[in-house]
Amino acid sequence: MTACPAPTADLLDRLAHLLGPSGILTAPSDTDPYCTDWRALYHGRTAAVLRPADTAELAQAVTLCAQAGVAMVPQGGNTSMVGGATPDDSGREVVICLSRMNRVRRIDPLDHTMEVEAGVTLKAAQDAAREAGLMLPLSISSEGSAQIGGVLATNAGGNNTVRYGNARELVLGLEVVLPDGSVFHGLRRLRKDNTGYALRQLFVGSEGTLGFITAAILQLQPQPRATEAALCAVADAKGALALFAAFRAQDPALIQAFEYMSGAGMDLVTRLVPGASLPLAEPAPAYVLVELATPRANADLRGALEDVLGAALEDGTVTDAVIAESEGQRMALWKLREEHAEAQRRAGASVKNDVSVPVSHVPELIDRATAACAALIPGIRPAPFGHIGDGNIHFNLVQPEGMDPAAFLALDHRIMDTVGAIVRDLDGSFSAEHGVGRLKPYMMPDWRGGAELATMRRIKDAIDPRGLLNPGAIFPPDTGNPARVTPDA
């Protein structure tokens, strides 16, 4: 495909006139923060960051860019783990950030729905639902920064997927600005609407390659009346899975989150993150954070938790456990889980594998991938953690102590391919909740080739025939062997 042209001075003037002083950034000092991803793996350039205030402004801005043939990169809170919202280094792409579109339009307590704009942070949406006596169950580590548009565009998963599903399961309706500037008006609150293709689902998980999600109707849940959390020490992932089976056998509807953490990962958190401390007598090879919740009145949730943990302690599945006695203690337990990514960043360069396998295969994945990566790079520090209850493990690997970070990152594809070979053998996926972005398109032909990738391309070509939206994300080049990008250290 021929490279898209750079935005002209005339186009930038027209966009400035449309969006006003608050709606466009052109000085490099202002645009630079939008050109580097959260992990600092990708560093791009842009002639302008567009910040429309509403859907009408966005539609007009997209129309102007489309008429000029200028490529556009949608960006929300810029929390992508795979460079999915970062412009390339050509300076030809404009970034379109929807952070000014940040209103919670309405909450319907009878329908249990929320209409929210794309620039609202997930945390703000959660707070608004809570104030209405309801709950938005989606929960991810970056919820204070991640915005609803990006969360839906990447089909985020998170901690509560085991009970409520990924973002996709929460979406009833969408409003989307298409690549030519036209608007898909799909903000419907209907649970049943069997009238042809469910177009909203095309945009959820499309990583900004098909349109700009501007607003959404999300399903809410009753606010839990009781919540209980416990941190448990186990021997390994097999023990963690046995504990999950025990809780599921008791009452699967009570499980709100079930998270696995390796002993190595927990050690990094407690050593490198201020305020994080292990509330158990001794370190363990692995840990589980389990959270139960129920909207039922007079439910003995503590009793249910203690029953399962008591039996697990007795049969040796769990070697030690602590139950949160207050909201502060519950948050302290969650801090140990949520700070894994930050602890790994402080420990040095890391390669992140957001993979999923059938739940029953998680222990084999962890054992085999740990051994394979240790053989590939002696001294490498595997620190797997994540959502063992739904089969999604972040099989992250930290550089060996003393190794040059750039040299380690230069091996990122070899590491990902090593883990990927095991994931494929276990009938899994190379991306569970982070998406493909700019980091992993080279993997698509092998994993999603043939009719599957060809169908994706036909959908992309039908909606965005000139490839103006988020070029470089998801899709590898049409021909030849795609060059594997080695991100900057």
TrEMBL record:
Origin superkingdom: Bacteria
Keywords recorded for this protein, A-Z: FAD, Flavoprotein
Keyword Flavoprotein assigned: yes
GO BP annotations, alphabetical order: respiratory electron transport chain
Flavoprotein keyword on record: yes
Region (Disordered): 470-489
GO molecular function, one term: FAD binding
Family, per entry: Belongs to the FAD-binding oxidoreductase/transferase type 4 family.
Protein name: FAD-binding oxidoreductase
Species of the source: Gluconacetobacter diazotrophicus (Acetobacter diazotrophicus)
Lineage, opening ranks: Bacteria, Pseudomonadati, Pseudomonadota, Alphaproteobacteria, Acetobacterales
